[in-house]
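Extended Data, record Sodium:proton exchanger
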Amino acid sequence: MPETRFLTDLGLLFLAALGGGLLAQAVHQPLIVGYILAGVLIGPFTPGPTLSDPHTFQLFADVGVVLLMFTIGVEFSVEELLRVRKVALLGAPAGIALVALLTIPVGKLLGWTLVQSLVAGAAVSVASTMVLLKFLLERGELATLYGRVVVGITLAEDLAVVAMTVLIPALASPGGDRAAALGQALLEAVVLLGPLLWLARRAVPLLLAKVAHTRNMELFLLVALAVAIGTAALTAGLGLSIALGAFLAGLVISESEFAHEALARVLPVRDIFVAIFFVSIGTLIRPASLLAEWPAVLALVLLVIAGKFAVWTLVVRAAGYPVATARNAALGLTQIGEFSYILAGVGRNHGLLPSSMYDAVLATSLVTILINALVFRRRPTWVQRLVSGQETVPPPAAAAVAPEVQVTVCGFGRVGREVADALDAFHILYTVVDLDPEATREARSRGAGAVFGDAGSEGMLHHAGVDRALLAVVAIPEFEAARRCVTALRALRPDLPILVRVHQQRHRAELSGAGATEVVQPEVEAALTIVRHSLDLLGIDHRLARRYMEGARAHWPEAARAEGVSGDALQAMEVVVQDPALEGQSIEQAHIRERSGAAIVSITRADGREIVNPRPDERLQAGDRLLAIGTREQLDSLRHICEKEVDPYVPG
C-alpha cells in the first residue's frame, strides 16, 4: 500500500538521519556531513536499504528550506551588519563577485559554459552559516574582532543568497535577453512584494500579540509556521522564490517584540525539516558520477580553499583590518554548505546546471567542511603561525556598549514586581523575561529591559543578557517552569547566583539539584514572620525569641539571610552528649535550640542506630552523637552545653 510504503520510507529516513548525526557527533564533525552521508547510503545509487521514492521527500526538503530562510530572517540583525558596515556592505558583495569571476577560468578548463560557471561560482561563493557559527562558538571566538567581521560577512551573504535565488532563474533566458530578464526579475520582486511587505508589517505583529495574550504556545507556534510557509507559498504563486518569501516573513517577525519566542518555538521544527533536507540531498548524489567528475570536484575544492582564502583576505584587509584578522576571517569562510545547495538546486531546477555539476557542488561542500573542521577548528601549528598576530584595530563604527544588566528577573508576577520595586529603589539595572506581554510591557514602562519568551529557553536568557548579569531571580510560580529556568541559567552561567521561589518543600531539593543557589518558600517566610510577631506580642524575652527563631530557621538554611539573623556561614558539626544532666531529657525539655540556636539534624546512638530529623520529644542518651547545623558561635555553644555540666536552663 502507498501509505505503508511512505511510512516505511519516512522511518528509514529518520533512522538514517539519526545514525549519520550520531556518527558525525562521535567523530566531532558537523551534523550536516552525517546527514548527507546517511542520504547517500539510503539513496537509489548505493546498495543496501533504499527509499522507494526519494523524490517524495523533496517536498519535505522544500519545507526545510522555507524554515531555514525564515529563521535567518528572524535572526537577521541590521545592528550587527552596521557594526562592520564597510566590510559587510561593500566588501562582502565584492568578495562574492570576485569568487564568481574566479570560477569562469576554472569553468573554461573544465568545459563549462559561461552561465554554468557563473551559477557554480554563485553557489561556492557563500559559506555555511551553520557550520561557521558552530565552530566559532566551540572555540569561544564569536566576540573577537575577526568573529564580528565573519558574522557581518555572513549576514551580507544571507542577503546575497536571497537576491541570487531571484536572479539565477533569469539567466535561463536567451543570451540577449538576460540583462532585461534580470531587471524584470528585480522589478517584479519589488512591485509584487512591496505592498505585501507593507501589509504584513502591520498585520503580523497584531496577530502575534493577540495569540501571545492567550499564553497558548501551541497557537503561537502555529501562527509562526503559518506566516513562514504561507508567505513562501504566496511568493511561489507569484513566480518568485520560496526562499525570498520565507526570508521576508522572518524579517517581518524580527521587528516585533515576539521575535525571539517565535524563533525559539520554530527552531526544533526547523531542525527536523533541515535534517530531512540534507538527507534528501544525499539521496540525489551519484557516487559513480562523482568519480567520473573528480576533476570538477578537485577544481572546486581548490577554488573554495585557496581562492576564497585569498579573496577574503584581500577584502578584509582592504577594509582596514589587521592581517591577523583578515587571515582568521578568510580561513573561516573557506567552506560551503546549505546555501550552496539551495543556489545549485535553483540552477539545476531551471536547467542551468546538469546533475553532474550539482553533484560536484555537493561533494565540494562535504570535502571543504571536513577540511575546514581540521584546519579552522583544530588549528594545527602551521595554521596558527599563518594566522598569528595582534588584532589591535577596533572594528569601524563599533556600536556603543550596552548598559550592564545586573539582575535577570524571570517571571514578572506579584513576587517579580516586588523584587523590581526594590531594584528600582536602588537604581539597579535589570531585565525581565516573561511569557505575558502585559508583564513585559509594564517592565518597559519602568525603564527596564524586557524579553517576551520562555525563561526556560537558553536563547531567551542569552538575549536577556544573563551572560552579563550579577544575579538571577526566578519568581515563576509553576514548579516545572521554574526548574527548567534554573537548569537553563546554570547551563549558561555556572558561576551565577540564582534565587528561586518554591511553594512546596518537596520541590526544594530538585531546585537545589538543578543549580539554585538559594530556594525561598514564601509560606515558610510568612509563618516565621507570624511566629516572630506572636512572640513579641506575648512579651517573650527578645533574646529567647531570637534564639528560637534562629533555630527554627536552621531547618530552612536559605532563610538565614532574613532580617535579624546572623549572616555567618552555616556549618555542620558532630557533638557528643557527655553531660549527665541531659541524659533522659528530650530535645525539647533540654531547650537545645533555645540555648544554642543550633539545629539537630540527626542522632547516632552508641549502638550505631541513626535517627534522622529527630522529633522534639526524642530523648537524649549519654554517648549520643548529635549532628547539628548552625553558625560557628551556635555550634560552639551546643558543644559547651553537651560536654560540660552547666546550670539548669530556666525559661524566662
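Summary. Residues 407-520 form a domain with the Rossmann fold fold (CATH 3.40.50.720).
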